[in-house]
Amino acid sequence: MTASKRGLTTRRKRDSILQRGIGGTEPAMDYCLRIADNALENMTLAALEAYCLGAGGKKKQIETLGYMWGVTNTARGTTNIFVERMSVSVSARRHPDWVEPNDDAPRLKNEIIRRWSPHLKMLGDFHTHPYESLSEVADEKGYEFSDDDFECFIDDDFMWEESGNTPLMLVATITRLGKVRDSHGPTHLRSNIVAFDIGEFRIWLNASVGYLDEDGKRRCTRNKGSPVRIDLGPRLFNFSGDRVFGSGNGSGNG
Ligand SMILES: [Zn+2]
Q1: Ligand 1 centre and the CA of 14: distance in Å?
Q2: 132 alpha carbon to ligand 1 midpoint, in Å?
Q3: pTM of the prediction?
Q4: 22: CA distance to ligand 1 center in Å?
Q5: What's residue 253's pLDDT?
Q6: What is the distance in A from the centroid of ligand 1 to the CA of 250?
Q7: Is the dihedral of CA 130, 46, 80, 114 positive or negative?
Q8: pLDDT exceeds cutoff 80 at 245
C-alpha cells in the first residue's frame, strides 16, 4: 500500500471523494468515544512537542501522527470505543502542512501490542493540525478533517481489517492562545468535537468512525451531523434528564 499524506488541504479532492462514497448512507449506530487519561496525555504531549519544537530542526509547528489501541463493544444501538493507548510514530515524515505515515509503523507496533496487551485491538490513528493563532483556526475551520484525511482513512486497509471495520480517526488541532482565561473542563463545539485548554495552548479533538453500509461499502462519519460523541470526562459530565437508577434499563425499579 502506498503511503498517503494527511494534511490541511481542503476541498481539492471533493469530487473524487464523492465518487468513492464517503458520507452517503447514514450509519445505523451511534458512537461514544472515551479516551483513557494516559492516552489523552500522550496525545497532548505529542501535539505540543511537534507544535513547540518541531522535529528538532528549524521547522516548528509541524503535524505529527500516532496509533491507537483499545476496546469496543456495542450495546443499545451505541458502539462504545475506548482508547486505551496512543503511541506516536517517530518514522512518519512530518511537515507544517501534512504528515506522511510510514506504513510499516502500525504493523510493527501492532505486533508488540499483540504480545504485551492481547486484550487490546488496533483502533486507528491520530494526527495533529497546528495553527498559528485562534483566528486562523476559526477562519480555516482548522478543527475539521480535510478531504485528504477522509480519503486516506477510507483507503487504509490495515486499519479497517484490524479494527473489524470500525476504524477510528482522531485529529488534534492545536494553537497558541493570545490571552489565557479560566476554562472549566472540556467544551463541545459539536458532539464529535471537544476543546480544552492547557496553559497557553488550546486543543480541539475531532473524531470520525468508519463503518460498512448495507452494500458492504466503506463509509465514515463526517465533520458535521456526526453520530459520534466524544466524552472526555465521564465522571464530570451529567446530561440533563440522565438517570442512573430506575431508568427502565433493567436496573433497580422493582
Ligand atoms: Zn488532517
Answers
A1: 15
A2: 16
A3: 0.85
A4: 16
A5: 42
A6: 42
A7: positive
A8: no
Dihedral of the alpha carbons of 241, 244, 245, 251, in degrees to the nearest 10: 130
Give the up-direction half-sphere exposure of residue 85: CA atoms within 13 A in the CB hemisphere.
21
Q: Is the confidence at residue 6, as pLDDT, over 90? A: no
- Domains annotated for the chain, with CATH where assigned, are 6-230 (3.40.140)
Tell me, what's the pLDDT at 55?
A: 86
Ligand 1 centroid vs 8 CA: distance in angstroms?
Answer: 5
Rounded to 5 degrees, what are φ and ψ at 16? -65, -35
21 by Cβ neighbours in 10 Å (0-12 / 13-18 / 19+) ranks as: middle
Alpha carbon of 238 to ligand 1 centroid (Å): 31
Residue 207 CA, ligand 1 centroid: distance in Å: 11
Q: What is the predicted pLDDT for the residue at 65?
A: 96
CA 8 vs. chain centroid, Å, equals 15
83 beta partners: 35, 70
How far, in Å, is the centroid of ligand 1 from the Cα of 239?
30
Average pLDDT over residues 45-69: 93
Edge-to-edge strands of the sheet including 98-100? 6-7, 98-100, 93-94
How many Å lie between the centroid of ligand 1 and the Cα of residue 164?
23
